[in-house]
What does this fold into?
Amino acid sequence: VMKKIAVLAALAMLLGCFALPVFAAEQKIAVVDLERCLTGSKNGAKLGKEFRAKREELGKKLEAKEADLKKMIAEYEKQAPLMSADAKNAKKAEFEKKRDEYQKELSAAEQKMRASGDELTGIVVKDLQGIMDDLAKKNGYSLIINRSGAWVLYFDKALDITDEVIRIYDEKAK
It folds into this structure.
């Protein structure tokens, strides 16, 4: 029985070796660097600039609130020796309330910026997906792989269609 299984396994592997080149010969593969498409295309760069401007504006607001908290601490440290225990407790409670509000606002801002970044990326990727679908149909690609992916260890540079994707995307953006 073991001998029959071994013979069948060897036969299957032998047939697989002959079938694999035939399968591979029929396939046409391309590689695209989506990260470069996002940052290198005109529309992607424009959306990235808008995103950075929003993030900077939000950061300035949060920095101002953080500066107010630091000022509050400094004032407390100056006045603490002269304050009664009740006054100290009231100032601490006021500070803790403002600190908690700041931390909630900071967390909400980070979440908002993450969602905004994901939304902008989604817009560009959706546009790029249409372009890649068209290129795949036009050029007969069976598979387009994202070069930015973690598992692409090597590819022939001749397979890279990133520049073509960016060029078409920029032309459509006009």
